[in-house]
Amino acid sequence: MSNPGALTADFPIRNDWSLAEIEALFDLPFNDLLFLAQQCHRQNFDANEVQVSTLLNIKTGACPEDCSYCSQSVRYDSGLEREKLMEVDEVVAAASQAQIDGASRFCMGAAWRAPRDRDLDVVVKMVEEVAALGMETCVTAGMLTDSQASRLQEAGLDYYNHNLDTSPEFYGEVITTRTYEDRLETLEHARNAGLKVCSGGILGMGEARKDRVGLLAQLANLPQHPQSVPINMLVPVPGTPLGASEPLDPLEFVRTVAVARIMMPKAHVRLSAGRESMSDELQGLCFLAGANSIFYGDKLLTTANASAERDRALFKRLGIRPMQVTEGKVAVVVNG
């Protein structure tokens, strides 16, 4: 990697990245890394177009998992009030408003370890009706079986999101109630059912750079790259074990976005949680590094997000336009 020009001609799809190769990308001078990432981005996407999603929490709290970052865990006193699964017509109304506001994908999040079949019946109906609006759809529902993934695919679902969160080595420091293999298995079930995959991680949980390297290695070396890769900045929630975490160096966050872009050239790399506290300048650097998807709206599940007004103003300043849906397909995102 001492000669970044060696990578400028071509950015092939690879599933055999070594840790040493990824570390070398992270170690590049900042300008060289962003130069490579921007070239990769332009080879695969319109550099001034960003996919816009809206995320709605359709069932809040009472999750039995112990994810150390999550306000929805029943194990932590985060002050969050539990709410039952929303009615289908409420969700469709929210999706319609999101579409009016400029979102092309509507993501629905439910705080479950794994959905029961009777709960999935309702989610399937939500997917069908939101898809009928001409939007992509997205649901967060925990671990899936093969048969459940197939049901969602038959309902018209395009994407299923299930984050790996961090490296296999650091994972046990964050979560003990679900294994890394559980997560990989859910992604496999989604792929086997013909669903596209949305999977990424969370930065700033106390991990080292080697863990960010390990996370990206896991994602890029899957049998097929995730079509969407959310890169979250931890939002510390009081009452959770990570509630007093120190913020990650912003330039390290940008580096991670850039390396993700180079390693997964055709994926939508999404700026997810944490944007509310990011400056416009930091977000602009992330777009330069190859990010081309955001969550739009004032809230992400239970934490604050950048306002739609601020995003519209930022897009105007940067000359960015929202990506339009060209096919009436569906995308589902899963919590965790």
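The above is record 1. Record 2 follows with the same two-line structure.
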Amino acid sequence: MIEVRFYRSGQSLQGFSAQGHADFSDRGTDIVCSAFSALSQTAILALDQVAGVTPEWKRRDGFVQCRVPEGLVGDCSFATQVIFKTFLTGLEHIACQYPGFFRVSYEEV
């Protein structure tokens, strides 16, 4: 199962971490893993290229973590939240469609 945890401070999303493998099908053909990978990589790239925020992130097999700097304001803060909430919307949809393979949770920071 892929378990994604969003870090939030009040209503503001500050980052996420994910670990595990969906094991929906064989490696290389797993649509749940592929969907998560595409969404997470797009979110990380968009933080940099769209929001103008340099996130701190790391990735290894079965794990990814991304956090944005504290104290973002103005357009950077707004764009960051739009990106994270759009990412979250996609992930929640995957979790509803594949409940035994994917889970989203939250941690207050």
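The helical segments are 31-49, 74-97.
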